[in-house]
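G., the chain you wanted modeled:
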Amino acid sequence: MSHPLRIVVIVPDLAVLDDQEEHVRLQLERSRSLRVGLLEAQYDIVATLPADVFLSERLAQLRPDLIIVDAESEARDALEHVVMATRDKRRPIVLFTNDPDTTHVPDAVAAGVCAYIVEGLAPQRIRPILQVAMARFKHEQSLRAELQDARDELKDRKTIDRAKGILMQRQSLSEKEAYDRLRKLAMDKGIKMVQIAQRMIDAAELLG
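Predicted structure as tokens:
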């Protein structure tokens, strides 16, 4: 890494947990163990935050490289907050939990969780888990970009084909002649061919 990975840890708000002291103590120990493991692995913990309504604003300000959700029985609720807070700016999410209910794992993965770790919060496991999560996130982002590029290319092709059809119909041109006309207009004006095509379609719709 060129710089320490900047991490935000999302933890339960202990003030709203029930008053079972043992439960709170165990949660505090888990959170401490996680933070110690992160620091020993030389990661930069920029903040420890609750999963509340202000999370989106705080993440926008902190701009972490990765988000860790440290949750127990409230794992589903915490994930919903984090997913909502990162929907406009996706970031890799890793969840550590002792919650044995994994029925919502598929939904969590579909929502952007890169690693879902149940039990076994050993400090020596943290670095490989986060490295795999980052690699998976980058791979998925690359696939998303490729998919979006393919969609944009298909949309542009349809726009150009539609403009060609207008030229072929109104000026009695062949498909090649219509294409060459569009390409020449784009070159003369120094803009993309799809932009010329869209202008032609807009003009045709305006004139009827």
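The beta strands are 6-11, 44-50, 66-71, 93-97, 113-118.

Shout if anything looks off.
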